[in-house]
Amino acid sequence: MNLKKLTKSQIVIISAVALTVLCIIFCLTIGRNDSKQQGGRSRGGNTVFSVITQTVQKEVLHGYVIANGEIESQNSVNVYPDVAGKVIETNVMLGSSVKRGDIIAYVDPSAPGQYYKKSPVYAPISGSIISTPLKNGTTVSTNTTIAIVGDISNLQVTADIPERYVAVLKEGLKAEISVEAYPGVVFEATVSRVSPVVDTTSRTKEVVLHFNTRDERVNAGMFGKVKLYTQDYKDQVVMPSDALVQLNDENYAYVVKEDSTVERRKVVTGKSVDGKIQITEGISEGEKVVIQGQTSLNDGSKIRDIGNAGAKSADTENSGDEKDGAGNGAEKTGAEKNGAEKAHSKN
Question: For a FRET experiment, which of 35, 102, 310, 328 has its CA 20 to 30 Å from that of 111?
């Protein structure tokens, strides 16, 4: 090509094309180097994948049910008037202490034009007023509750458990109670009574729990969150649920071999509990599985272990819905009760 015959515009175009080609070559070279630095290459030319692993151990899984509960007096009595009429005087307020025989209120049973006479309403037991008394002027009958007197030194929690968990309910089960007023604080309790019948309307069974120790921070009338432990599963081979890989409706895990390659191994799973999954077949205690980075792996892939999550405490709690290993709810314990209760169990 005769450069003297090239126009100025042609020279500019040729220069631009040449510069573009050089830039492309440079970018490809840099990208290839970055890829080698990040993944590395095995001597066979296969990519080495950086992963995080964890050693499989046997653990104890604690099953539990979570439900809403009402904190109330163990011994409380509704106070009724002896006669019908109007409340004309109230001598107590919410929280007032009373003794048996104290006058709580007065009721006027007289009709207009009749002789005026006050009828006293007495406290049937000693304790505290645990419900707001009726206001003066309220018309009452002999079936109307004027107030409720309860012994607030001994409290209990009443919770309604969905029908499908009836099989695991029994007296003596341990529970932890938490209240909104004291976040992070747990109060221990024990099941003292399980209702013999299921409520046909709510399809729930009432469970009564007594606090193991008295704590002044817990008050009658509070709302409590009940964590009721139902069953322990001991010596279970468990791995993180994140290690599970599903292919064609089958469950697999990548098991690390001594030569730093992985074996994609089929596993049979059991309970899925709080980010942990029970392995009934396929993996043994002490083997190492990939828990992060396995999405890019294949059977036989070369890996670099950049961090073993290590063995955690062999005591794991179940705080999530229990499912079978395939992710299907096999005795699933998550439930909403009246839009407020969520239940969990491992049974």
Answer: 102
